[in-house]
Amino acid sequence: MCGIVGAVIHTPVNQLLYDGLLLLQHRGQDAAGIVTSEGPVFHMYKAPGYVRDVFRTRNMRELTGNAGIGHCRYPTAGSASSELESQPFYVNSPFGITLAHNGNLTNSDALKRELFQLDFRHVNTNSDSEVLLNVFALELERAAHHARLDANAIFTAVAAVHKRCRGAYAIVAMIAGYGLVAFRDPFGIRPLIIGVNEAMGGTEYVIASESVAIEPLGFQVLRDVAPGEAIFVDQAGRFHARQCAENPQLNPCIFEFVYLARPDSVIDGTSVYEARLNMGGELAKKIAGIPAAQDIDVVIPIPDSSRPSALQLANSLGLKYREGFVKNRYIGRTFIMPGQAIRRKTVRQKLNPIGMEFKDQVVLLVDDSIVRGTTSREIVQMAREAGARKVYFASASPPVRYPNVYGIDMPTPRELVATGRTEAEIAQEIGADLLIYQDLEALKRAVRAANPTLKEFEASCFDGYYVTGDVTSDYLSHLARERDESRDEADESLFATG
User: Fold this and answer.
1) Beta carbons of 368 and 258 less than 8 angstroms apart
2) Which of 97, 214, 220, 243 has the fewest CB atoms within 10 Å, i.e. the most exposed one?
3) Which letter does DSSP use for residue 95 in this model?
4) CA-CA distance, 120 to 382, in Å (whole number)?
5) Poorest-pLDDT segment among 308-322, 333-347, 456-470
6) How far, in Å, CA of 46 to CA of 83, rounded?
7) Which residues are catalytic?
8) Can you tell me the distance from the alpha carbon of 498 to that of 435, in angstroms, rounded to the nearest whole number?
9) Residues 110-147, buried b or exposed e (16+ Cβ, 10 A)?
10) Which residues fall within 8 angstroms of residue 129, CB to CB, at 6 or more apart?
């Protein structure tokens, strides 16, 4: 999961891209980058850190031009230095192209070998985003007519990318001297949405990961980029669109609605906030049928993403809803922080309990999900230390038992607390007196209730079904080995420098 934004407007674009990345900061806290286009010339600045810390006034002054793209990075398993792998990436052959990517390719290693052995293109990092950029550049070269590009050639190149690349990808790219290109994988796993603004100089366009990065910038949501579709906005602001996949089908990642997206976003026509309210309603139905859960005194959310679910759950069951934890807003989202040790340390710094809400109470804590169990264990312990008589824990989503290979850092089963454990064993592992999980069908009902047109979802972390059809047990084992090697190298480095 990363945040991407691209725009073609009639005034300097640097501030708009910066503001867009601030609105998408929740999608990636590791690094940020902006590329602007001034005719055939690119201006780029990227570095590790939060958006507000990466870009200074001197950097912004150098980002001239009326079109560009931006990226905020979330590191996944095996990622190298954020400085090396921060985006956007750039190639200068056969055209100057810069690209930012949200998602993860599942055939990245095979593509890298093909690029080197057959196409004589060199990839400098371990990033699948750089692989995708090189595939796109190669296909543009093949599709170009007399070394010139038009919309038809660009769409032909995207169609070829769809045939070669597997996995999840939402893309914004700039082609020097031509314009902005955006496209989405044929399953629509990662979100991408178009905004439009009628300005003095004509129509302006912005394309971003979520609607929350469109409306606050003064644009109106036009529509989502369809699965497999490509968008091209040329330098004159002319808008072109074409379906470039043979059999597209919408399977949005259901974890976007559970946790990743901001609640005020609308993704694929679905209000994230409404979906989370519905999750709470579905969870309340389950809790109402559990005899051991009938002595609850108070419902307390784990801020922030579980608040709508917890509120609706409490209202449905006629229970008190209280804010029991105060959140330090200067610490980022613990789920997307690299490394267990950092997450564990950060939980106590991030959340502090309000003692009066816990003392002598049977408390139901509600969270959006339980992944590694690290955060949940610390929070349950904090509730006990604050005086809770009993601590029940409810997850608005089902047990996470399988790796996610489409851009979320859930890479190995042994790191997932639910793998190989019953609910009672997981409750014991996190220290809760009772643990209640949402059922998968109930979760799907909750999201569909916010948008009945949604038929299927990418829910592999819950059910082990990978919609792209190319994820094998050997592939998952390879990912796990890479993860272990990466962790061992990090531990050795820490030991050597500690």
Assistant:
1) yes
2) 220
3) S
4) 56
5) 333-347
6) 8
7) 2
8) 39
9) ebbebbeeeeebebeebbbbbbbbbbbbbbbbebbeee
10) 85, 87, 89, 99, 100, 101
- Measure the CA angle with vertex 400, ends 257 and 226; round to 5°: 35
CB atoms within 10 A of CB 343: 20
Largest CA distance in the chain: 77
Name 390's Cβ contacts closer than 8 Å, sequence gap at least 6: 295, 362, 363, 433, 434
* Other CB atoms within 10 A of residue 393 CB: 26
Q: Is 474 exposed, middle or buried (0-12, 13-18, 19+ CB in 10 A)?
A: exposed
Both tokens of residue 221?
Answer: 């949501």
- Whole-angstrom CA distances from 100 to 9, 274, 430, 445, 466 are 19, 30, 38, 33, 24
Cβ(258)–Cβ(396) under 8 Å?
Answer: yes
Express each pLDDT in 61-81 by its tens digit: 999 999 999 999 987 644 555
| DSSP codes joined into one string, 261-274 | S-TT-EETTEEHHH
Torsion from C-alpha of 330, 333, 337, 343, nearest 10 degrees: 90
Q: Cα(94)–Cα(488) distance, rounded to whole angstroms?
A: 39
Burial class (CB in 10 A: 0-12, 13-18, 19+), 295: exposed
> Residues 6 or more apart from 433 whose CB is under 8 A from it?
390, 391, 392, 427
Whole-number average pLDDT of the chain: 91
Sign of the C-alpha dihedral computed for residues 257, 262, 264 and 267 taken in this order: negative
Residue 396, helix vs strand vs coil? coil
Write the CB contacts of 134 (distance below 8 Å, at least 6 apart in sequence): 91, 115, 119, 121, 123
